[in-house]
């Protein structure tokens, strides 16, 4: 396609030229943008809004690799190998079986969020935003039982709410110009979950907050590695995060790492798999290990830097620490709890879900049953996590794989 001047012509036209469909023009613009940013991760022909499955965009089923980083203090890698040699070694690597699945999920994430960034605007309802992200995810990943689908409910936490809010049925909250919105969504292929989040604002006064958190997350990603102690990562994240401050409406606020929120490791179908990556200094000397997958996420706040559970719950997940036998031995005296548990097991397994996902399955009058499952420890509830009202929390998050020879930031895009 043409050069810059012809592309600006395309932009300025309200009506497509005769014989050229709107989709073709959108694709042409996407291609222009692609060559401009020189980013090989952008697919060649995606529609707007996105509808083409990723498997169709990569017919040979080799999905783009994420950002490759050397491990910290690994000078041998820096000096000994050039990019081609690293590529060759990667091919020999038997290490990480689900890597291509994870890359496919990551490509879905990048394409869905590219659309989300355009779609999300003040005036939209939280419900329409969640549905837009989830519908696009289902199409692009070709949702199919436990083989591919949504990794967890779309987090759309606002302002002082740091995490775990997604609308329930009847929610009529509308996004406002002055809001700070965290968009946290997940995609899985064969249980390999890509967990990645970003923050959107519509007023440049929040820029410093976003810059701090983006910097802190990238610091955590850089610091991560095989044999690295979790406490050391937390300390580095905090140091970077808290080197920032922000002036809002004439008052200066320090930006604090939210001390009781953490990154986490991810196992197949299990979003939080036991290890926590702190974002403040602490004394957890547990080490990261080869072939582990981690979600590195940081939260910066103008408030206390401490969250508490507050508000109506939307997020749930079946406990991954109980065996089916242990679950069967728990007497459930509410019949609805039993049928609901059957539905949860069949549709989500241990993947997190929200009330809207139960609604779309046709489940009705399930709140008492759900509460019974939560009370019996079979299902864990995840209520919204909130700092003090009036404060602002931002979040950025990436999923990384600790491959034997290098670290892969699978969810990296040209946006964050
Ligand atoms: Co996460």
Short descriptors:
seven-stranded antiparallel sheet; Arc Repressor Mutant, subunit A; 2 domains; alpha+beta; Creatine Amidinohydrolase; single chain; binds cobalt (II) ion; disordered N terminus; globular; 35% helix; 416 residues
| CATH second-level architecture of the largest domain | Alpha-Beta Complex
Helix content: 25-40%
What is the overall silhouette?
globular
Bound ligand species: cobalt (II) ion
Q: How many strands appear in the DSSP assignment? A: 18
Radius of gyration: 22 Å
Distance between the termini: 27 Å
Q: Mean of the pLDDT scores? A: 89
Provide the domain count: 2
Biggest sheet features: 7 strands, antiparallel
SSE-based structural type:
alpha+beta
In the CATH hierarchy, what is the superfamily of the largest domain?
Creatinase/methionine aminopeptidase superfamily
Low-confidence stretches: 1-43
Structure description:
By secondary structure, the chain is an alpha+beta fold. The chain folds into two domains: 1-309 and 391-416, Creatine Amidinohydrolase; 315-382, Arc Repressor Mutant, subunit A, CATH 1.10.10. Helices cover 35% and strands 21% of the residues. The protein is built from 13 helices and 18 strands. Strands 1, 8, 9, 10, 11, 17 and 18 form a seven-stranded antiparallel beta sheet that branches. A three-stranded antiparallel beta sheet has the order 2-4-5, with helices on one face. A hairpin with a 4-residue loop joins strand 17 and strand 18 (407-409). The longest helix is centred in the N-terminal third of the chain and has 21 residues, at 99-119. It is globular and about 55 Å long.
């Amino acid at each position: 396609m043409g050069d810059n001047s012809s592309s600006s012509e395309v932009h300025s036209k309200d009506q497509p030229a005769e014989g050229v469909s709107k989709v073709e023009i959108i694709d042409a613009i996407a291609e222009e943008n692609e060559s401009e940013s020189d980013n090989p991760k952008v697919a060649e022909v995606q529609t707007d809004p996105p509808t083409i499955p990723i498997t169709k965009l990569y017919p040979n089923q080799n999905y783009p690799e994420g950002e490759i980083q050397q491990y910290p203090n690994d000078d041998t890698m820096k000096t000994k190998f050039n990019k081609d040699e690293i590529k060759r070694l990667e091919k020999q690597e038997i290490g990480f079986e689900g890597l291509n699945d994870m890359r496919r999920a990551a490509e879905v994430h990048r394409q869905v969020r590219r659309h989300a960034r355009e779609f999300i605007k003040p005036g939209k309802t939280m419900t329409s935003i969640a549905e837009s992200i989830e519908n696009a995810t289902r199409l692009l990943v070709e949702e199919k039982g436990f083989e591919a689908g949504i990794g967890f409910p779309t987090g759309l936490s606002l302002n002082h709410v740091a995490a775990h809010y997604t609308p329930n049925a009847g929610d009529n909250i509308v996004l406002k110009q002055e809001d700070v919105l965290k968009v946290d969504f997940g995609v899985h292929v064969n249980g390999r979950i890509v967990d990645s989040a970003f923050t959107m604002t519509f007023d440049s006064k929040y820029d410093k907050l976003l810059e701090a958190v983006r910097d802190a997350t990238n610091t955590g990603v850089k610091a991560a590695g095989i044999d690295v102690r979790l406490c050391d990562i937390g300390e580095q994240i905090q140091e970077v995060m808290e080197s920032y401050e922000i002036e809002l409406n004439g008052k200066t606020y320090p930006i604090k790492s939210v001390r009781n929120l953490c990154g986490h490791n991810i196992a197949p179908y299990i979003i939080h798999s036991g290890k926590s990556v702190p974002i403040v200094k602490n004394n957890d000397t547990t080490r990261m290990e080869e072939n582990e997958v981690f979600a590195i996420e940081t939260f910066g706040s103008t408030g206390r830097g401490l969250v508490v559970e507050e508000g109506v719950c939307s997020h749930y997940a079946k406990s991954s620490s109980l065996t089916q036998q242990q679950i069967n031995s728990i007497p459930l005296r509410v019949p609805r709890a039993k049928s609901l548990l059957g539905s949860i097991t069949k549709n989500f397994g241990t993947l997190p879900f929200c009330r809207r996902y139960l609604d779309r399955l046709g489940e009705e009058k399930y709140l008492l049953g759900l509460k019974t499952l939560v009370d019996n420890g079979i299902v864990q509830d995840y209520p919204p996590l909130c700092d003090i009202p009036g404060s602002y929390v931002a979040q950025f998050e990436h999923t990384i794989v600790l491959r034997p020879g290098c670290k892969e930031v699978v969810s990296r895009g040209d946006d964050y």
